[in-house]
What we know:
By secondary structure, this protein is of the alpha/beta class. It has three domains: 8-94, NAD(P)-binding Rossmann-like Domain (Rossmann fold, 3-Layer(aba) Sandwich), CATH 3.40.50.720; 104-277, Mur-like, catalytic domain (UDP-N-acetylmuramoyl-L-alanine:D-glutamate ligase), CATH 3.40.1190.10; 286-416, Protein-Tyrosine Phosphatase, Chain A, CATH 3.90.190.20. It is built from 15 helices and 17 strands. The chain has helices spanning 16-27, 41-52, 84-92, 99-104, 120-133, 167-170, 197-205, 224-229, 252-263, 268-277, 305-313, 336-342, 353-360, 372-382, 404-416, and strands spanning 8-12, 31-35, 56-58, 72-75, 96-98, 110-115, 138-142, 160-164, 180-183, 216-220, 236-240, 286-291, 294-298, 319-323, 343-348, 366-368, 388-391. The chain has a six-stranded parallel beta sheet with strand order 7-8-6-9-10-11. Strands 12-13-17-14-15-16 form a six-stranded mixed beta sheet, sandwiched between helices. Helix 1 (16-27) links the parallel strand 1 (8-12) and strand 2.
Amino acid sequence: MMSYKNKKVTVVGLARSGVAASRLLCSLGARVFVTEEKSSPELVKLSRDLKKEGMGVELAGHTRDCVEGCDVMVLSPGVRPDSAPVAWAGQAGIPVISEIELAWSVCRATVIAVSGTNGKTTTTTLIAEILKSAGRTCYALGNIGTPFSSKVVEMKEGDYVSLEVSSFQLEFIRSFKPRVALILNMTPDHLDRYKSVEEYLNAKKRIFMNQTKDDWLILNETDEALKKAAGQARSRVLFFGKAGVEDAGMNQNQQAVLAAARALDVERKTVLSVFRDFKGVEHRLEFVRDLNGVTFINDSKATNIDSTVWALNNMKKPVILIAGGRDKGSDFSSIVQLIGQKVKFAVLVGEAASRIALAWKGAVPFETVSSFPEAVRLARTQAESGDCVLFSPMCKSFDMFTDYEHRGRTFKEIVAGL
């Protein structure tokens, strides 16, 4: 295990992962300095708390103080690789790692890492549930909502971590080596951060770069790019995605979990029992309420087009769609045909609303609104008994909300008050 005692470590970013990393480092005896480019009343209060815990903190912009005497820099996933602190660290020869690399370096548990464009949270949750059902201690962490760093000191030899990892978190790993790694699928996403789909795929493939022949890599056989990636792996490869008779009726998330169960020596009957009892995850096609015959569904976790395609294909009722948020460079015209088939009316909101409107003009009746509560109310007035109001935004939440969970909770609160 890595020792951080008496090392000066700079943490860049004071979102959830950055706070968890800072507190972990403090508990390990490091001298911690935190730098955050934004400021708000909440961040000011948080910085006061961290200072009381013995950390140095700067808000409202990065200064070169963050690299002064620094031994290691830890990045929150939202921090871009071309940010000033990363550039300064490079100039000074300071190693830069991600929050999951930090937690991995002190982790005693066996790690199962799940990546891909869509389905990560559901798959991560199901893997944790099958391991618990098999009598093992397992934590579901990472992009799923609870940072790896916040729980790692609790873990013992023989425990497991089912870890949702994003491409952002994988950009700055060094030794991170999951016992089982899964890449579920690959579709264009985060093109506001990556120059090409290939660059995005290369970030995802880092999940298996340190694996050896004793580890497992689980890939989607229906994805040609991922099939090719198998040839670059040193680990043992399992494929899923082409359902045989045994797996008839199962979706690809379930097939991926079955493959993981095989790698982890969990019996099939245990997996099937978990599938039967599973109620789904919050903010992913989550039933909110039925109001006068209109069903309201919260799909706030749909931060890209493919997630919304999945949601629409699972809708059996006519849809009033609420969409929009911060644009990631997505091609909204790519789903015009599906929108025309499934959606009665679209309510567009947020920074991406005008681009979506331009792409969907003539395909579906729509209206653009300026606030989120207004969007929900308009969707309600457009819906008739037998319809479904689906909030599946296709975009990031950061134009109006702190994260997709904040956005989803707000949707549920507004719907509860209708």
